[in-house]
Design brief:
With about 250 residues, this protein is of the alpha/beta class. The protein has a single domain, classed as Ribonuclease H-like superfamily/Ribonuclease H (Nucleotidyltransferase, domain 5, 2-Layer Sandwich). About 45% of the residues lie in helices and about 20% in strands. It has a six-stranded mixed beta sheet with strand order 5-4-1-2-3-6, with helices on both faces. α6 links the parallel β4 and β5. It starts with a strand and ends with a strand.
């Protein structure tokens, strides 16, 4: 029995605790939660149409880093007008897309300063994220029935060893290694980097703006402004739920 929801997960920043980047001392995991019917009807056509308009085909992977730096297929974005129009259309798609967002931000600099033997940032972010996605699914009524319908978590492949370690930790968390010692009805799916998943590309686009809102809260951040209304809220609050920062 499958859930009506999918969860796409992507990251910004490095999970490594060595050589922490002073300009981005974070690991951000973005959990993009969508209803399957809305994903098929609204998100996928919007992303595909955007690609056809700007590239003439749909095989380009929308990658935040390459867009930001005008690399690869985005090298044509060299003038301010072209870049502004391109980003404006992409922002409009993100704003209109029907998804809910859980973002977990691990402050690696604070983690290192506070703990003698700090936990793996990726694993911490994964646990916090799954706990909050679970809370959201209960809010929607999807997990009020027993047994819970299975929710597929789509993540990008990183390498065999990394994926094996991630799957092991994922299973531990879902088997009760979480705050309330619950069983989570998630299943993990590893997607190839070239899978051209619209959901993964959206998750990639939202992760860095969330991180920038944490380390530079006073800096203008149009992308994050668009995302604030999509953050999961519990009892009206997004802090600690839709946006979890650790250590605080």
């Amino acid at each position: 029995m499958f859930s009506d929801y999918l969860v796409f997960v992507d990251e910004s920043g490095s999970p490594s605790m060595g050589r922490i980047d002073p300009d981005f001392p974070l690991l951000v995991l973005a959990f993009l939660i969508v209803r399957k019917d809305q994903y098929l009807r609204e998100i996928v056509p919007a992303i595909q149409g955007f690609k056809f308009k700007h590239f003439g085909h749909d095989q380009v992977i929308l990658h935040e880093r390459e867009i930001r730096r005008d690399l690869g297929p985005f090298s044509f974005l060299k003038t301010r007008e072209l870049k502004s129009n391109f980003l404006g259309e992409l922002s409009a798609i993100m704003e209109a897309a029907p998804f809910a967002l859980v973002a977990t931000v691990i402050r690696k600099d604070r983690l290192q300063a506070r703990y003698k033997d700090p936990a793996n940032p990726y694993f911490l972010a994964l646990q916090y994220g799954l706990e909050r996605v679970c809370a959201y699914l209960r809010q929607q009524g999807d997990w009020r029935q027993q047994p819970h319908p299975k929710v597929h978590l789509i993540v990008e492949q990183r390498g065999r060893n990394e994926d094996d370690e991630l799957e092991l930790e994922f299973r531990r968390i879902c088997d009760g290694g979480n705050y309330n010692h619950e069983k989570f009805a998630f299943d993990i799916v590893f997607a190839n980097k070239q899978s051209n998943s619209s959901g993964l590309q959206l998750a990639d686009l939202v992760a860095r703006p969330v991180g920038m809102s944490v380390i530079r809260p006073d800096q203008q951040n149009r992308a994050f402004e668009l995302l604030q209304g999509k953050l999961v809220r519990v009892r009206g609050y997004a802090a600690g739920w839709g946006l979890k920062v650790f250590p605080a």
